Amino acid sequence: MNWFGAAYYPEHWPRERWKEDARMMAYLGINVVRIGEFSWSVVEKSPGDIDFSLLDEAIEVIYSEGIRVIMGTPTCTPPPWLVKRYPEILQVDRDGLTINAGSRRHYCFNSQVYREETIRIVKAYVEHYGRDPRVIAWQADNEYGCHNSTVCYCENCAIAFREWLKKRYGTLDRLNQRWGTVFWSQVYRDWDEIDPPRRSLSSPNPSLMLDYRRFSSDSVLEYHILQRDIIKKGSRAPLTHNFMVNFTEIDYKKMAEKVDFVSWDNYVMTDYDPDLQALNHDLMRSLKKSSFLVMEQQPGRVNWRVVNEAYPPEQMAFWIKQSMAHGAFGSLVFRFRQLPFGAEQFHSGLLNYDGSTTERAKAFAETVKELRNWKIDRLKKEAAIYIDYENFWIGETDNLNGNFNLLQDGILPLYKTIRSFGYNVDFLFPGDSPSGYSFVCIPSAFKLDPEFLEALQEFEGKIFITAMTSQKDENNNVRLQDNDSFKRLTGIRIIDAAGIKNPVRISFGKDEYIGGFVIEALELTDGCEEMAVYLEGPFKGKPAIVKKGRCYYLSTVGDIELFKELFELAGIKRMANGSARVLRTESNMVLLNPFPYNIRILIDGVVHNLREYEVKVVLPQRI
Amino acid sequence: MNWFGAAYYPEHWPRERWKEDARMMAYLGINVVRIGEFSWSVVEKSPGDIDFSLLDEAIEVIYSEGIRVIMGTPTCTPPPWLVKRYPEILQVDRDGLTINAGSRRHYCFNSQVYREETIRIVKAYVEHYGRDPRVIAWQADNEYGCHNSTVCYCENCAIAFREWLKKRYGTLDRLNQRWGTVFWSQVYRDWDEIDPPRRSLSSPNPSLMLDYRRFSSDSVLEYHILQRDIIKKGSRAPLTHNFMVNFTEIDYKKMAEKVDFVSWDNYVMTDYDPDLQALNHDLMRSLKKSSFLVMEQQPGRVNWRVVNEAYPPEQMAFWIKQSMAHGAFGSLVFRFRQLPFGAEQFHSGLLNYDGSTTERAKAFAETVKELRNWKIDRLKKEAAIYIDYENFWIGETDNLNGNFNLLQDGILPLYKTIRSFGYNVDFLFPGDSPSGYSFVCIPSAFKLDPEFLEALQEFEGKIFITAMTSQKDENNNVRLQDNDSFKRLTGIRIIDAAGIKNPVRISFGKDEYIGGFVIEALELTDGCEEMAVYLEGPFKGKPAIVKKGRCYYLSTVGDIELFKELFELAGIKRMANGSARVLRTESNMVLLNPFPYNIRILIDGVVHNLREYEVKVVLPQRI
Amino acid sequence: MNWFGAAYYPEHWPRERWKEDARMMAYLGINVVRIGEFSWSVVEKSPGDIDFSLLDEAIEVIYSEGIRVIMGTPTCTPPPWLVKRYPEILQVDRDGLTINAGSRRHYCFNSQVYREETIRIVKAYVEHYGRDPRVIAWQADNEYGCHNSTVCYCENCAIAFREWLKKRYGTLDRLNQRWGTVFWSQVYRDWDEIDPPRRSLSSPNPSLMLDYRRFSSDSVLEYHILQRDIIKKGSRAPLTHNFMVNFTEIDYKKMAEKVDFVSWDNYVMTDYDPDLQALNHDLMRSLKKSSFLVMEQQPGRVNWRVVNEAYPPEQMAFWIKQSMAHGAFGSLVFRFRQLPFGAEQFHSGLLNYDGSTTERAKAFAETVKELRNWKIDRLKKEAAIYIDYENFWIGETDNLNGNFNLLQDGILPLYKTIRSFGYNVDFLFPGDSPSGYSFVCIPSAFKLDPEFLEALQEFEGKIFITAMTSQKDENNNVRLQDNDSFKRLTGIRIIDAAGIKNPVRISFGKDEYIGGFVIEALELTDGCEEMAVYLEGPFKGKPAIVKKGRCYYLSTVGDIELFKELFELAGIKRMANGSARVLRTESNMVLLNPFPYNIRILIDGVVHNLREYEVKVVLPQRI
């Protein structure tokens, strides 16, 4: 049975209301609620004075309606007394300014004091609820890294960073050599001379910058493992953490290894793009190659944008169905009831401020009824996109074009193109194998995993690679002679490269297309043939797209139009035609209409019509 | 006799020049000058070494021409020696950075040391000039809050804030409950845990934010009262303080209670809008429901904008006449003479840098001659707009649309519409009564005073209310069940609301109009009827304007076109037609042309022609 | 023989490679390389442990190919151990935040500790290389002021500033009087009360601001002289420092006096404008009225812009030729070889990352061959533009239009106009004489040197002056009665002035033109005649251009179209027609085509055709 529910905060409402809330939950089809993740000051009112009676009572009421709970550890919000007692837990920014309490996430992951406080409070939660059968899962902390809290520059971090570097490099000589500190006279003679990349007049060393991002991500991971170890020791319930949309500051691939299942919070960050939400679903599924949970589903209006727009209940229903179609085993709406006080007072919920039901609640109940026992087979392996979280960090250091955003400009256009051709998309990470996919795309992977590169040499499907791929080594330095394997695969050597302010025209097939952000001047080796040339710009007349065997290389950043033509010419068969989205499993297909109007889609000669926001499962005609 | 004059700084000019200046003042028609408000380092060259001889002599010279003075206390500019001795008086910003001396207003209102220094120096001024008949008024300090100096985050403020909170809430339990600190685990167990809303990762508690703004405004008030008490004890001359244009950081309604008359500084802040200046005049008059003074009248170019534009002398003449028409009993130009040194060296004055007269001086003299004995009756009560200063602060915390500015987007369009219909405007505040007005407008009053709301139930005129009104309670929380009185008045219940990025079309009357910023989904109760509906957007088809009895509710933010149509359909009679402005008293009318070209206006069937910048008093034909 | 070369960093590459590098240098025609300027941590690995063996060996290898070196002192990049030992050397910004090490230039010019360290390390370099004949020149430090490092606000600077002020003013009374500290009660009674213009609520005193900029520039100069004295004492090789493009934070005129020859770094900062590069060349030549060196020539793509664009090798070749035509005696490309690590890893070089040659290297070799013995006579004195570095600083304090940039908006349009008429341009500075030039332009010289003004009275050529000239005195105060000399020259008195947001139309000659940024209202004295009037704006109908004898005054900021018409009407003869650039010496002319297409130019009735990027020396037909 799939999980449907909401975030519920019994501490926000009078005890007398709980029974009514639980009854409404049951009525709406809820079978699980998340509780507890901001409850520290409720459970431990004064230092050491731990009392779970409020949560106990609430869980009892909730469970009386057959609803189980996901228990959150409350470490995201250390209470005021804790911060006043230990102000050293606060983060410090790049400028050297302390970031104060007052909202949430106000702690440094490398604070030894905070780690001890974390152990103490998490142990208390696990001792109390570790064996409670009503607790069906644990969520450690809440949205690690939210509000740009991943990277801290405090002295605790400086000390921890040096230890991290010692482990990574062993000797200073090795570090100096790998980082190229001889440039600008930055050679270290003592580990204590190494500082975080705090504010300086010009660019810090790019190797240090990448390592600091790795260290920061690893610090979150290390902090998480503290909690994981306590929870796993004291409870048999599975452990998760709620990941975030479009979030690239933490290496989620590594983090996913430290949870039993991935969950994530499905919010629309800017202008709504259904494919961007779908991309995030596919990414989350790919992290553990497994089914996942939507821990927080946006119900409608949020409170944290400049303009907090409305979304109709039907769209929320679509979002829930879309999650399931992409591999979720459940969805919890954030939040059960709108809260009139606190910093999220304009965030919508299933219930109104006054506790009355809303159109959203009705739409939720209908959706749950429909999906309760929805079982969709595992999605077929079709197309794959390569992602390495470290490349997001490399992309934020020195580069050819500071306006290029790897996720938005590099990955999303390729994802959209593949989906428009009717293919499922999996994401592959360093260490993964491309085998079994029809084709693999590698969008601007500045650094390319050597093992993955080797696997590509043997891969039998088509390969599409875009500019800047394999440009950097492990230390964020430009690759030199050791790039032969990449040259063997692609047939190219890059002799020059540059950022471009405006797109350049490319002659390709029967038409003209454009490339953007960067361009490269290629030298082709034997067996590599030119498919398209630049019609303007500094590399006018030079190849824009080349092909060696099954491997296609684009020496610029493409848009959807260009990729469509490239796929066509490369013989990628269109599996669907139309504006609906399609996902395929071994036994059937799911068709999705993310739009508020009727659309159609042509698959294998059959036309399927979809009403606004409709999601339907069909048996394919011919596969 | 009305007051006409200028700001004069004898300390800036050689003693030998004073006589000449005084003669020119008299020649121009000046009967009062403001002096002294930046004179601390002149009067007290070294700590304790107080010497008024320069001011004494200057006043003697000025008075020899029959001119009196408004004496400013010099606390706006503590001298260098004071700051070096007591650096703890400096403000600290949200990031924790000290704001240094070097310009002006460099002190924290809650600094105990600075309060003592203030008492010392103000006492000295009052002891010296308290009984001087040549001093006809006092100005305490200068432009409280200017340069964003109202809100400080230093430790002095933290301590004072906690005391303020203790007085307001009595117990921490009460505060925790009112603020909803249970959200995000912010429950306080000790008053000392409460800090100013210093920089944090995400939004602080909105109740704390509102209270910090109240506390900051109250701190200014408390500081002002220190000075007031000394001045009132030592002098019979009336006390004022110069308020600022478009300024909403201090609760001027409360501040007005602590001065004998309101004065304000009439500057054009951005692109010139004559109605915006008029709005400020009406607001200043409404604060004490009494005549006011323009303490600083911009003469032409200022020095503090990015592009410091010129304005012709005729426009300055208009500004002075406009002030008087709106209820001023005088106007002082800032400044008498352009100063070649110091931070305002590009600010224009009546005299040129070299002491010669200017076209501005001539225009001033002519205007003064015309207005010297101008007595305009009290303006008639016609239309009113509700303002609560706290709503400006609420509007800057969490909200549906962060681009909405209450003054500019909420109040100004309504004001302009009313004025274009030919009505006088008064502003009403919490505690005021609407009685006696033809109609009352309540533009987006997030929080609505319960007493005022009750008074509206009995009010016999028409009422126009726009979106978001009465949405919040006293603690900046979203209102729940206790909003029945508002529901009774308007006939509506708000079931959903959202920000909108782009305006939405509304079908209203025979035409289409637009609403902006936010929209609300209304549920209508008995007796409430729909007047207009949304043609697009998330609440398409739902009511945009409704009417219950004499009360009209607009569930979005309107523009002038929409309000004009609403007034027409509501039967608000046009009292004037044309682009001139009109103000009515019991006995006559003032017609104003704020433009550099001739215009006309039709009133009661009579056409009045006005030359460029003309202001004239006429007897109405039929009233 | 001219100098051609590159920046070379032997410490970046394996010793085994040096021989090959030197051979390639020789092959490309290089006869000089700059080394050492970032070598501190290579030479002094630990405090006191000084070892020049790496540089010795590298110089030996380089010199074996007949190549000499320019030795840079390494003070631009204090090594990590030094910063950790003496953190007090770091700069502090206006907000009070420390600017950390991590990139370069991380030291305060007024740090006594750093000055001592500087003396120590520079002495070591000079003792070692002072008599080495292979060292043909010294470069002190590297790009003083780069990355906005000229102005620091630390306590060291505060103390040094007070000493600087004591020397300048002698007594506090004098300082108080000159600065006009009586404004806003800023009168100082003790030198220690004077602080740098750190962050305050509003504008600091403009006299203090100008003096702080002077002091900051002087501090750099004082620091430089420390190094100069050591180098000149220990070596007979000439000393230089590499100046920067468009850089106005340091008074380069004063700095030029402290070097034996000027060198500068020729980079394209924003969108390429060949005239802006030419202006910089002419400025550098004018500083010492002497030939100069391009110490760093951009080879193609740089790494420090948001979008790092490509430039073709032919354009680099043009840049080198353009330098020589404007008076350079050599050009060193930055850098010899692209570096795969460190903060400039995307900066291009003559060699590729892997040490292979590039098209840039080929173009360089061809250019060097062509120019090796190119001797162009001294450029003829034709037209001159007045510059005072202090005016750039005045332009950044209080002003009429904060959008006006003196270099870009005031000087460049005049420069471009003069060049389009076919004239050479020299820059003149305070103390220089206009004599010998056909005409002199004075674009918005807020402060005008009294001696230069006197010389202009006698000058026989034409004079073109634009708005705001002579508006300010030595203390950045608005000038009063003492401006008679300027009035005598121009025939005007400025009675009002203002910034303008949008350009205003001017009736001039047979057509309409526009003026921008500011306008002035002029009063004309005898002998001054009106040439053009404003068609709109606050001073409509008033004179826009006036003429007294040979002196033309424009009361606004002109663009190229306006200046062309003004020159025509003033009888400035066109010496060339067409889009090529021309430079004249006593014996010949250099024609330059900065464009990637063929152009032509008509000179003295003869048409000259130039291929893309061509630079050629021709004998003039008739002169």
Automatic annotation (TrEMBL), chains A, B, C:
Where in the numbering of this chain does the Glycoside hydrolase family 42 N-terminal domain appear?
8-373
Q: By its UniProt entry, which InterPro entries does this protein fall under? A: Beta_galactosidase_Trimer, Class_I_gatase-like, GH, Glyco_hydro_42, Glyco_hydro_42_N
An individual GO BP term:
carbohydrate metabolic process
Family label? Belongs to the glycosyl hydrolase 42 family.
Q: Which organism is it from?
A: Mesotoga infera
Could you list this entry's UniProt keywords, alphabetically sorted.
Glycosidase, Hydrolase, Metal-binding, Zinc
UniProt name for this protein: Beta-galactosidase
List the catalytic activities from the record. Hydrolysis of terminal non-reducing beta-D-galactose residues in beta-D-galactosides
- The EC number(s) attached to this protein equal 3.2.1.23
- Residues binding Zn(2+): C108, C152, C154, C157
Provide the GO MF annotations for this entry: beta-galactosidase activity; metal ion binding
Taking every annotated instance into account, which residue ranges of this chain make up the domain Beta-galactosidase trimerisation? 382-569
Which residues are listed for substrate binding in this entry?
R104, N142, W304
**Keyword Metal-binding among record annotations:** yes
- Does the keyword section mention Hydrolase? yes
Sorted alphabetically, the Gene Ontology cellular component annotations on this record are:
beta-galactosidase complex
What are the catalytic residues?
E143, E296
Q: What is the main EC category here?
A: hydrolase
